[in-house]
Amino acid sequence: MAGSIPIQIKTAKTTPAERRAVKGSKIVPVILTAIAILFFILMLIVPLISVFAKAFEQGANLYFASITDPIAWKAIKLTLITIAITVPINTVFGLTAAWAIAKFKFKGKNVLITFIDLPFSISPVVAGLIFVLLFSTSHGLLAPLLNAWGLKIIFAPPGIILATLFVTLPFVAREIIPLMEAQGTTEEEAALTLGASGWKTFWLVTLPNIKWALLYGIMLTAARSAGEFGAVSVVSGHIRGLTNTVPLHVEILYNEYKFSAAFAVASLLTLIALINLIVKNVAHWKIKQQSKI
Amino acid sequence: MERNKKAKNILKISIASLIIIANFVSFTGCAKETSKNRGDSGEAKSVTLLNVSYDPTRELYQEYNEAFVKHWKEKTGQDVTVQQSHGGSGSQARTVIDGNEADVVTLALAYDIDSINKNKEILSKDWQKRLPHNSTPYTSTIVFLVRKGNPKNIKDWDDLAKPGVEVITPNPKTSGGARWNYLAAWGYALRKNGNDAEKAKEFVKAIFANVPVLDSGARGSTTTFVERGLGDVLIAWENEAFLSLNELGKDKFEIVVPSVSILAEPPVTVVDSVVDKKGTREVAEAYLEYLYSDEGQEIAAKNYYRPRSEEVIKKYTSQFPEIELFTIDEVFGGWDKAQKEHFDDGGVFDQIYEK
């Protein structure tokens, strides 16, 4: 307390050189913020607006006609089915993997973490080709089995779902592992000592603690499932109305000179991205709130 | 308490997603059953064909499929759905090799259909003799598309080899159209230099030195030239050049017809192993035969493919510029030979495109 008085006196009488220094330090953040905002506008806002501008270029009628077109609709349906299957499976996987990694000590933990990250580091095209090598009915590793059972995996919806599962595998786990590790195991230990069962502990203690991070992981998984192009393109065979997802349909429309229609369908993907952003912000805000308590 | 509630909500959500999965599984189950029904074609009500085609035929088959569906319904009372898949001719053949179950393939050149058979006999070896005109119901040729007013003054193949001219063409390794482009240039050079292969090689090398990007398919190259605005001249299928002109405005581009070009024959065939498995041989064969009918030929001509029918071509003579055309058999001794010499690994194309 005693030391604060002379400092106050000093700030009241600043020298001109000091004042300049303070002013200078005000300009730097302004410039930095301006650069950031300008970059943000150029790289994100302008492209976003241009997608919607191009989509509505030939009027709202064409916009809705291209979205409700039967083949576009089938692509949307396939994408939704892919999301509906990928998200629950990868959520369950992500939860169990994160739970194991964050709350227990075991041998090979680092190996498991590395494997979870594998889909991040492999190019989607290679991921797609892996599935061709496995499931091709003429030369794939599993070809005899597939032919015996009359199953079709690649060039059919199951292949698209498998490829998407592979690509989106790390998202949930990667979002919740750091949080779980930071929270430690004390709360769970307390619950267990008080006589709660393992399941009860998970539902009532662990899950509520991570729910916002989990939600964000799920959103990322859904967004990537909707938008994945590379891996899906390799296993799709591009059969319209059957194995085309929304991103592949966008490419087809673009290649057929139907630019407005292409961007109309692309705007659906953009919407998903926007919703994702909002959820992300809400989730981050909630996580902060939680840690304050 | 509140935590309990939220946990229950999450439980509810997971149950809901499980129900969605269950629905999907039963839905695919149904799909399987209907496809089984398709097998015994006698009583079957509807049938589905998959046509795996190359890049620029999108508009052609969109129109043709509608006509065929109508024709087949009138003739047999059966509903048929034709599914389409498009891409670079070579890569499309690849998907059929990998197990894409195409009932019919309509590719850019005979070699790609032959290559489907390379490892395993998926279709009959003499497929090319099954339909008239080497199983090619329509032909095309290779022309140039330039920007309006022809600012680089491109008249013939020679102008493409000049320094400072940017040429757009797809990759001959994956695109059928690109191989026709390459062979057309080669054939022109042979003719000009008294069949001197070394000079032809130099000439084609000079053209490819002017190529800034190699797209994987013809349509990709067209969008590179037309939409992205790259290059001074696009070497393209005649039908592709006409289509870009009509779709994107005659005020932006014009077609330049070279003095000599190649007769491009994109063949079609039924994939025997697939149609026998699916029980779709009858309709698949009819689908291809109908391409030779007056209506099929007319649709081809409307989409700027040169029809085989004398009558239909007479009707459309004004549409197709007169070019001196040579065939691949005359100049290169057939596709097998041309492929081995020029496009296989270590072939002439690899030698000249090394930079």
TrEMBL record, chain A:
By its UniProt entry, which InterPro entries does this protein fall under?
A: CysW_permease, MetI-like, MetI-like_sf, Sulph_transpt2
Compartment annotation:
Membrane
Question: According to its record, what are the GO cellular component terms?
Answer: plasma membrane
Molecular function (Gene Ontology), one example: ABC-type sulfate transporter activity
Q: How does the UniProt record describe the way this protein sits in the membrane?
A: Multi-pass membrane protein
The record's keywords, sorted A to Z, are: Membrane, Sulfate transport, Transmembrane, Transmembrane helix, Transport
Q: Where is the ABC transmembrane type-1 domain?
A: 76-280
The record lists the membrane-crossing segments as 27-56, 76-99, 111-134, 154-173, 259-279
State what this protein does.
Part of the ABC transporter complex CysAWTP (TC 3.A.1.6.1) involved in sulfate/thiosulfate import. Probably responsible for the translocation of the substrate across the membrane.
Read off the NCBIfam families from this record. 3a0106s02 (TIGR00969), permease_CysW (TIGR02140)
Q: How does it assemble?
A: The complex is composed of two ATP-binding proteins (CysA), two transmembrane proteins (CysT and CysW) and a solute-binding protein (CysP).
State the name under which the record lists this protein.
Answer: Sulfate ABC transporter permease subunit CysW
What organism does the UniProt record list as the source? Acetivibrio mesophilus
Automatic annotation (TrEMBL), chain B:
What keywords are annotated for this sequence in UniProt?
A: Membrane, Periplasm, Signal, Sulfate transport, Transmembrane, Transmembrane helix, Transport
Which InterPro entries does the entry mention? Sulphate/thiosulphate-bd_CS, Sulphate/thiosulphate_BS, Thiosulph/SO4-bd
Q: Mention any Pfam family matching this sequence.
A: SBP_bac_11
GO biological process per UniProt: sulfate transmembrane transport
- Which interval of the chain is the signal sequence? none
Q: Known PROSITE patterns for this protein?
A: PROK_SULFATE_BIND_1, PROK_SULFATE_BIND_2, PROKAR_LIPOPROTEIN
Residue ranges annotated as coiled coil are none
Q: Which ranges does the record mark as transmembrane?
A: 9-27
Task: Give GO MF terms, alphabetically.
Answer: molecular carrier activity; sulfur compound binding
Major place of residence: periplasm
Please give the function described in this protein's UniProt entry: This protein specifically binds sulfate and is involved in its transmembrane transport.
Q: Which family does it belong to?
A: Belongs to the prokaryotic sulfate-binding protein family.
Write the protein's name. Sulfate-binding protein
The protein's organism comes out as: Acetivibrio mesophilus
